[in-house]
Structures are given as structure tokens and as C-alpha cells.
Design brief:
Largest sheet: 9 strands, mixed
Strand content: 15-25%
Helix content: 40-55%
Structural class: alpha+beta
Number of strands: 12
Oligomer: single chain
Order of helices and strands: HEEHEEHEEHEHHHHHEHHEEEHEH
Shape: globular
Length: about 350
């Protein structure tokens, strides 16, 4: 493993690389208010963040990433289009794998604003690719809009679509919901006898509302078999990028929203090719990043070598900016590099 001084030197090199592309250097406090992160990610973040209590500021977290404070900084500045870069430690609790570090350095490059989203996606990816140099990695891309388009196209009530959206980043739960919505729902239980004294945590009104929802669910037709097959086909879609777009269009089979998502992926590939990226060597996975890139909402990517943690990851996170900006979306895309993994790759090449 490289010495920390070597990792910091590599981080400084990478940050200077992005700064030379017009990126403003961003610094973020190591201690971040827990409230904003909990509002965005929910209580799940406690399982992977270091939480502490400040007597004046309340609950705080050791910085789990730079993206949230950077978005807040950008919103506070009122700036339009902007580029940022940063380098510093992030902290993640590890409960299942003692070999994964709980503290490591990230170097990021983030773009905000702009009218051409595909061009911005391609710029970030190509900049990451150039910064990594010729180290041996597999480059994989994906696009969450493909799966969200498949959900939106379902002939089912909005409440079911919202449940599927919410659990898209939890594949096991998502699969269980698809399975449940594919079968007729059981009839609801009877309402409690009003002559029996009420005992329990839920009020009678809450119980009645829940039973009414279950009754509505019981009357909702199951998902059509072809819709389920289409979603499962997209979830398993993995191929070289140009072939994946062709397969996506065949899977769409006339479903306009999915066909439009495939067209957008094709536009990103064109933008990547215009920056010198051989798209025929890129892998495309429709489900790429579902378990690890939970605030991304469109184009995503990762650079990885066998036996090592990903050396670089990133993507588009417009939904995050909307969540922090009262529902108003600001186009944003970015990525991070782990310099210690990059040094390990350079060492294996020499």
C-alpha cells in the first residue's frame, strides 16, 4: 500500500489536472450537519456514517462525501454554470468487510448547469479517463433513466410506481415488489369491531385508512406479463455499449418512454465518441450502480480493475439538486477518483 504522503501527492496532481480545466477548488468541513444528510438519505445513512453529537450544533457526521456540501455551496452562491474540483478524506463505517478502509481520499470533478446534458456527461467521463491515464481498467457505463422509463411506462397506479421508484436502489426489495405486483393482491382484513375497546399503537382512523388502501390494492389488476418481462430484461441487460442500445430498442418493442431513453444513451455515446472515447470498448449495464450510487438519476459510470475497489465512479445527480433546491432541478454531473487505488494500478503496471 502506498504511503499516505504519496496518496496526498497523487490527489494534489489530480486536483491540479481538473483545476487546469477551469474547475474552482472547493473545500468542505470534515464535520457536516447530520440533519441535511438524514433528510436526503434517511436513517439508512447511519449504518455507514460516523455520527457524533456537538453540544452547540447538535448531531454531526464525519464527511461521508463531498457532493452534498458542494451542492449546498453552489446553491448558496447563486452561480449558474460552474465547474468544481476537490480533494480530501471521506469517512465510511464498515460493518461487513474489515479490509475496506473507513477513511480514504477522494478527488472529484463536478459540472453544474449547461444546456447540453449529454455533452456534460461525456466531458466528465472523458476527463476522468484522461486523468487515469493508461492504467488497466474496465470501463462500464449505465443510465438509470432506462429503468425509470420502464417503471413510468407500466400500466399501473401511481402509488405502485412510486413504491418501485423508491426501492429501485434496493434490488432485492425491488424484485420482491415486482413479484408481488405480478399477482392478485389478497382481500383486505375486516375492520375491527367497534364494540370492542380499542387497544394498540395505531388509531382507529389509521387502521381504517390502511384497510381502505389494502382494499384498493386488491382491486388493482396485476402487472401484465409482458411488462414484467420487459423490466426483467432491462435489469439483466449487459453488453458492449452500441449493442446494448440496439437490444434496448428491441426490448422497448414500441414503448415510447423506453425507446426515448435508449435514444438518449445513443446521444451520450455520440458525445463520448466526439471526445475520442472508443464506445465499442465500453460495457453498458442498465442496472449498473444500483446498490452503490444511490443519489444518481441518469448517466453513471465506473472504472475498475479486478481485485481492487473501483478507481473512479460518477454520474448525473439532477434529482439530488432538486431535493436540495425545493424541487427545482439544476443539471449536475460529476465523478470521483480514489488516488490510492490509482497508485496501486500504476504499481501493478510497472
Amino acid at each position: 500500500m502506498s504511503a499516505k504522503s504519496d496518496i496526498r501527492a497523487e490527489a494534489d496532481r489530480l486536483r491540479a489536472f481538473f483545476e487546469a480545466r477551469g474547475a474552482e477548488v472547493f473545500e468542505a468541513d470534515i464535520l457536516q450537519p447530520a440533519g441535511a444528510l438524514l433528510n436526503l438519505y434517511g436513517e439508512d445513512i447511519r449504518a455507514r456514517a460516523f455520527v457524533t453529537q456537538d453540544p452547540l450544533r447538535g448531531e454531526m457526521m464525519l464527511r461521508p462525501d463531498f457532493t452534498v456540501p458542494l451542492v449546498q455551496r453552489h446553491l448558496d452562491s447563486g452561480t449558474g454554470a460552474a465547474r468544481y474540483t476537490y480533494a480530501g478524506e471521506v469517512f465510511r463505517r464498515q460493518e461487513d468487510d474489515e479490509d475496506r478502509p473507513s477513511e480514504y481520499i477522494q478527488v472529484g470533478y463536478e459540472l453544474f448547469g449547461g444546456d447540453d446534458e449529454e455533452a456534460a456527461d461525456a466531458e466528465v467521463f472523458a476527463s476522468m479517463d484522461e486523468a487515469l491515464g493508461d492504467v488497466p481498467v474496465t470501463r462500464t457505463i449505465g443510465d438509470f433513466s432506462v429503468l425509470t422509463a420502464a417503471i413510468e411506462s407500466l400500466d399501473t397506479p401511481e402509488r405502485r410506481k412510486k413504491a418501485l421508484y423508491r426501492h429501485l436502489w434496493r434490488p432485492r426489495r425491488f424484485d420482491a415488489l415486482i413479484e408481488r405486483f405480478s399477482r392478485p393482491a389478497p382481500p383486505p382484513p375486516p375492520l375491527p369491531d367497534p364494540g370492542i375497546p380499542h387497544v394498540g399503537l395505531r388509531s382507529p382512523e389509521e387502521i381504517a385508512a390502511r384497510v381502505a388502501l389494502l382494499a384498493e390494492e386488491a382491486e388493482t389488476p396485476p402487472l401484465a406479463a409482458d411488462e414484467v418481462a420487459r423490466i426483467r430484461a432491462l435489469l439483466s441487460l449487459a453488453d458492449t455499449a452500441p449493442l446494448a442500445v440496439e437490444r434496448m430498442k428491441r426490448i422497448a418493442d414500441g414503448v415510447e418512454l423506453i425507446a426515448l431513453a435508449a435514444d438518449r444513451v445513443a446521444l451520450v455515446l455520440d458525445a463520448l465518441a466526439s471526445r475520442g472515447i472508443d464506445t465499442g470498448e465500453l460495457l453498458f449495464e442498465a442496472s449498473f450502480g444500483l446498490t452503490s450510487l444511490e443519489y444518481y438519476s441518469g448517466f453513471v459510470f465506473g472504472f475498475k480493475a479486478s481485485g481492487l475497489a473501483p478507481v473512479a465512479t460518477g454520474g448525473r445527480y439532477d434529482l439530488l439538486t432538486a431535493a436540495m433546491n425545493g424541487g427545482a432541478t439544476i443539471p449536475a454531473v460529476g465523478g470521483v477518483i480514489r488516488p490510492e487505488v490509482l497508485l496501486a494500478l500504476k504499481g501493478s503496471r510497472s
